[in-house]
Amino acid sequence: MSLESMTALERITIEMEHVVPLVRDLQAILGDRVVREALAERQRRRAEAARRSALPAIDASAIAPALATFAAGEALEYEIVRADSDALEVDVTRCAYVALMDRLDARDLGPVLLCDRDHELAATAGLELVRTTTCMQGGACCDFRFRRRR
Prior knowledge:
It contains 6 helices and 4 strands; from the N terminus they run H-H-H-E-E-H-H-H-E-E. By secondary structure, the chain is of the alpha+beta class. It has one domain (3-148): Muramoyl-pentapeptide Carboxypeptidase, domain 2 (2-Layer Sandwich), CATH 3.30.1380. A 4-stranded antiparallel sheet has the order 1-2-4-3. A hairpin with a 3-residue loop joins strand 1 and strand 2.
């Protein structure tokens, strides 16, 4: 199977099967707080770099295909609440990425290793993402609210 023929879930599964044990080893050596702070800071830096290098804000609904990429292979069940040039609002009600992290006994790492990447995606497109709840953190849904940056 080639990388191009794999779904996002398949690629991320392989990645997490390698990353999670490494993070757990680092937590044992350095402590949980230090490792979590380092991972969160890395994601913040990546999102900030994406914001600085972003193209002018695109039509917000244009990122719907990226969502479909992450949903491929029945990885997500979601409803598009709003899709226009200023906003893409999506409620994800089932997420196989949560099941993946559960299988790896790493749901606690899911937000920083997976969910926070969404902010980088938004920033790269010149959009802002507001999300108040995630399935990974026990919410009933992930409420993605992409907005065009003014």
